[in-house]
Design brief:
Helices cover 54% and strands 9% of the residues. By secondary structure, the chain is an alpha/beta fold. The strands form 4 sheets. It has a 4-stranded antiparallel sheet with strand order 1-2-4-3. A 4-stranded parallel sheet has the order 6-5-10-11, with helices on both faces. The site of arginine (ARG) has 9 residues, from helix 12.
C-alpha cells in the first residue's frame, strides 16, 4: 500500500495497478483485479468472471474490453483472454529481469520496512512456575518467537511479554512443600528442572493431608499479605523456575530473555482497581456472590449468557481478572496497538470474553486491536496427546535433547568428514530447526503429529531439506571462488531462457508478498510453504541448468540466481527462527 517505502518491484502489484483502472472503466466502479500466480500463465486474473454476474455481460467480453483498455505493453510479452473469461498474462523478459536485478540490489529482498511502525505486544511462551513446560508452551514459544522476528524485521516495535504463571493459590502448597524438603534441597530439585515431580509431590500431600492443606491456605494468605519470609521463598521458586526456562529458551534458540518475564504477579496491585472500575462503569453483575461481567455475545451452548468471573466468591481474583489488568496496562501504559496472544485454542473463549470486556470498559480503544493467535495440539504417533514411552507427559528439555542427538547422528552419517565440533553445531541447528519447522509448517489451527522421521527427513517440506539446499549453494560458491559474480548490479544479466530459470525467478520474487501477508495473518505455514517452493524450484533449476560448467554471462547469471536463492532461504528461515549452517 501507499504506507510502504522502498518496494523495488512487486510484479503482482504492478500488473494489478495496470489492470485496476481498466476494470474500473469497464465496471463503472472500483474492482480488485485479483492478479495471482497461475499454472496456466505467469499471472492470471479471474476478476471478469465475478464481474460478469454483476454487469450481466459475458465474462469473455469483459476480459477482452479490459485488455483493450489496459496499458501492459512494457510489462507483458502476451496478454490474452482464456477459458470462460480469465486474463492470462505472460511477463516480458525485460520486466522480469529488471525485477530480479531490483532484488539483487536490495538487502531486504523486496520486503520494505513499514512506514508507520506499531507497538506490538506479543504474549507468548508463558509457562507456569514449578511446573514442567509442556508441548503447548513449546508451540507458543516457537510461533510467538517467529512472530517477534518477523514483526521486528518489518520495523515494528516489539514487546515480548512472557506471561509467566507465577501467582495464585497453588503457591501456598508449593512453598509449604519447599519448606518440608528444606530450602536448599527443594531449590536444587527445581534447578535441575525436576519441576513436575516437585509439583506432583506438593499436590499429593495437599490432597492427602489435612494439616498440609491448612498450612497451605495460611501460606497463601501470608503471601498475599507480603509476609517477608513467604515472599522470599516465593521468589526462590520463581527464580529457579525462570532459570530452568531460560535454559530451555537457550537450547531452543529463541529471542526470549530474562527481561521479558512479565508474570501474572506483576498485575496483583492492579486487580482491585480494575474490578472497581468495572463496577463504576456499571459492567458488574453479582452471580452467587461472585462479581461477573456478562459480555454481550458470549453465550453457552444452550444460549444462556456466559459470565467472565472477575472476583470469586471468596474475594480472590483469578486468571480472567489478571488478563484484564494486563490488557489495560498493555494498551494504557505500554502503548501497544496490536496485542497478540499466542495461546492454545482451548483458551479461545477466555480471550474472546476478555477482549469483549476490555472493549466495553474502554481499555481496548478503536486504535488498538487484540488477537488470539490460537493453535492446535501436538499429538503422538498414536494420534493422542504426546506422551513419553513411560506414559508420562514428555519433558520438553528431553525432547529437544533428542532432536539434537538425532540430527547430529544424521549430520555425521551424511558427511563423515565433518569435525566433531562442527557436527555438533550442525546437529543443533538441524535438530532444533526440524522441531521448529515441523510446528510452523502446519496450519497452526490444526493439530499435528510429532514424527521424528518425517521432521528430520532430507526431502519433503522440512527444515533439513531447506538447510541442505542452502548448504549446497554455499558449497557451490566455495568452489566457484569469489569472482563468479558480476562486478556490479547493473552488470547482472538474468538468465530466463530455461523454464526452470523462470520458475525459480518467480519463486524468488514471491518471497516479499508472502512475508507481508504473514505479517497480517500470522500463518507461518504460508512462509514455510513458500520457502519450500523456492528450494524445490532451485533443485529443479540445478538439475537442468549447469552452473559452474556454464560459461560467460550464463554462468554469471546463474550464479546470481543461486546467490539470491541462498539469501532468500537464509532470511526466510531466520524469520522462522531457524539457522542455516554453511555446510551439511
Ligand atoms: N500460563 C498459561 C498456561 O499455561 C498461559 C498464559 C497465556 N497468556 C495469557 N495472557 N493468559 O495455560
Amino acid at each position: 500500500g501507499p504506507s510502504e517505502i522502498g518496494v523495488p518491484m512487486d510484479l503482482e502489484k504492478l500488473l494489478a495497478d495496470r489492470l485496476t483502472p481498466a476494470f474500473a472503466a469497464v465496471a463503472g466502479a472500483p474492482v480488485d483485479p485479483t492478479v495471482r500466480r497461475s499454472a496456466h500463465a505467469d499471472y492470471q486474473s479471474d476478476a471478469a468472471l465475478a464481474l460478469a454476474r454483476r454487469l450481466g455481460r459475458p465474462p469473455r467480453a469483459i476480459a477482452a474490453e479490459v485488455l483493450d483498455r489496459a496499458a501492459l505493453g512494457d510489462l507483458c510479452a502476451a496478454a490474452e483472454v482464456s477459458g470462460p473469461g480469465f486474463i492470462n498474462l505472460t511477463v516480458a523478459d525485460r520486466a522480469l529481469g529488471a525485477a530480479v536485478v531490483g532484488l539483487v540490489g536490495d538487502p531486504r529482498l523486496g520486503v520494505p520496512r513499514v512506514a508507520e511502525p506499531e507497538t506490538v505486544l506479543i504474549d507468548y511462551s508463558a509457562p507456569n512456575v514449578a511446573k514442567e513446560m509442556h508441548v503447548g508452551h513449546l508451540r507458543s514459544t516457537i510461533i510467538g518467537d517467529a512472530t517477534a522476528r518477523l514483526l521486528r524485521w518489518r520495523g515494528h516495535r516489539v514487546i515480548r511479554a512472557n506471561h509467566l504463571g507465577d501467582w495464585g493459590t497453588p503457591f501456598g502448597m508449593l512453598i509449604e512443600h519447599l519448606l518440608d524438603l528444606g530450602e536448599a534441597d527443594g531449590a536444587a530439585e527445581l534447578s535441575v528442572g525436576d519441576l513436575d515431580s516437585f509439583y506432583r509431590a506438593a499436590r499429593a500431600k495437599f490432597d492427602a493431608d489435612e494439616g498440609f492443606r491448612a498450612r497451605s491456605r495460611l501460606r497463601v494468605v501470608a503471601l498475599q499479605a507480603g509476609d517477608e519470609r513467604t515472599v522470599r521463598l516465593w521468589r526462590l521458586l520463581v527464580g529457579r523456575s525462570e532459570g530452568y526456562f531460560l535454559g530451555v529458551y537457550r537450547t531452543l534458540d529463541v529471542t526470549l530473555t530474562e527481561r521479558d518475564f512479565q508474570g501474572e504477579s506483576r498485575y496483583q496491585p492492579m486487580l482491585g482497581p480494575v474490578v472497581e472500575e468495572l463496577g463504576r462503569l456499571g459492567l458488574l453483575r453479582d452471580s452467587d456472590g461472585a462479581a461477573c461481567v456478562f459480555p454481550p455475545g458470549s453465550v453457552g451452548r444452550d444460549g444462556e449468557p456466559l459470565p467472565l468471573i472477575v472476583r470469586k466468591r471468596d474475594g480472590g481474583y483469578g486468571y480472567p481478572a489478571t488478563d484484564l489488568a494486563a490488557l489495560r496496562y498493555r494498551t494504557g501504559e505500554l502503548g501497544a496497538t496490536r496485542l497478540l496472544y499466542v495461546v492454545g485454542l482451548p483458551q479461545r473463549r477466555h480471550f474472546e470474553m476478555v477482549f469483549a470486556v476490555a472493549a466495553a470498559a474502554g481499555w481496548l480503544p478503536a486504535t488498538a486491536r487484540a488477537e488470539h493467535v490460537g493453535f492446535g495440539s501436538v499429538l503422538g504417533a498414536d494420534g493422542r496427546m504426546l506422551r513419553s514411552r513411560a506414559g508420562t507427559p514428555v519433558k520438553l528439555a528431553d525432547l529437544l535433547d533428542e532432536a539434537v542427538a538425532r540430527a547430529t547422528e544424521l549430520a555425521r552419517r551424511k558427511n563423515p568428514g565433518l569435525e566433531a565440533a562442527e557436527a555438533a553445531e550442525v546437529g543443533r541447528a538441524v535438530g532444533i530447526g526440524a522441531v521448529k519447522y515441523a510446528d510452523l509448517a502446519t496450519d497452526r489451527h490444526r493439530d499435528y503429529v510429532f514424527d521424528w522421521d518425517r521432521m528430520l527427513s532430507l526431502d519433503g517440506n522440512t527444515a533439513p531439506y531447506l538447510q541442505y539446499a542452502y548448504a549446497r549453494i554455499r558449497s557451490l560458491f566455495r568452489r566457484a571462488g569469489e569472482d563468479g559474480l558480476p562486478a556490479t548490479v547493473e552488470a547482472v544479466r538474468v538468465p530466463l531462457a530455461d523454464p526452470a530459470e523462470r520458475a525459480l525467478v518467480f519463486a524468488l520474487l514471491g518471497f516479499a508478498p508472502v512475508v507481508v501477508e504473514v505479517e497480517r495473518t500470522l500463518e507461518f505455514h504460508q512462509l514455510a510453504g513458500h520457502l519450500h517452493r523456492v528450494a524445490a524450484a532451485f533443485s529443479a533449476f540445478y538439475e537442468r541448468c549447469p552452473v559452474l560448467r556454464a560459461e560467460g554471462a550464463v554462468r554469471e547469471g546463474r550464479l546470481v540466481l543461486c546467490g539470491l536463492t541462498a539469501r532468500v532461504l537464509r532470511q526466510g528461515l531466520d524469520l522462522l527462527g531457524i539457522r542455516t549452517p554453511e555446510r551439511m
